[in-house]
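Sanity check

After download, print the first record. It should look like this:
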Amino acid sequence: MTKLKDRFLTMLKLLITYTFVATLFGCSYSEATTTIAKIGNAGSTTGYHSIRVMNVKDTTGANAGFGYGAVSSYPGKSADIGSIGIPKYVDGYWAKYNADKDGFAAFYRISKTIDSNLAKQKIETLRNYYKNHKTFNTSMHLIVDGPRVRLYYTMNCFSYRMDCSPKENADPNGWVIHQSNDATQLVLLFDGTGEASDTPFPGSPYDK
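Expected structure tokens:
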């Protein structure tokens, strides 16, 4: 009887240990591999730009490229960016087209950290914002305006054809941006300014 009792206690301890480890690693894995977007847009609100290289890295190290070449207008060009999670870092090179003649008027580069904790809070706010809009047809929008770079996140709920009504007290921090003309709601994940130069940065894609 004593041996059976000892064996039972040993098995119970092993089961508890296994459950704890599985829960710990299960939560970490789920959190680390959460995909928030698979589609990306790159554009501008101040005329024609060229984006040769623009990378956004998430907290797991995964990378999404927004280097779509010539862009103008918003939301601009769209492309598959694979699976990206909470953004953590942005770096790239782009340029502003000269409005009066061929070539570029200015060149820009950026290499900055994104506040991933704040970005995560904003993303979760939008993902839990709507009463009835359940789709996860989500996307990131990267916008360049001269040296300024902005990164937005959207659930692509368009008021003119979808029910985009929010839950009660869904946005206590006022993070959700409502665009005009019944366009989709957004949250701003990053807003930063890069370096500017009249000539291409050495080693950049424009340095030929």
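If your output differs, re-run the checksum step. Summary of this record's structure: The chain has two helices and twelve strands.
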